[in-house]
Amino acid sequence: MKRLQTNLHEIETAAELEKMIEENENVMVCCGRMGPMCIPVYDIMEELEEERTDVKFAVMAFDNPEADVIRNAPECRDFMGLPFTMYYKNSSVAHATSSIQNMQQITSVLDEQFAEKV
Question: In terms of Cα–Cα distance, which of 5, 82, 18 is closest to 46?
Fold first, then answer.
């Protein structure tokens, strides 16, 4: 299987994804390819990984058969553009986006979905 060339943790199986979601309160998974819409998102995730220690960042290859857990998720049903990005909070899908996202869009989702509720 072809791997994504990023410095992020790459999930290879649905079971590994499930385990990561269960073991971490906040998870952001970007499911894509090494293409012009996906690479900027991976780059932003790599940058954020250093400062957002409360979030577990990972990627999954869109063409991996195991990625159907993301591709076929109800939250992604109407998505057209890659990557499909899933945000999980306490083992549940908190938010999902598709297509290219910039730093501001990603950080606003992270802040909105993963902020400490007081």
Answer: 5
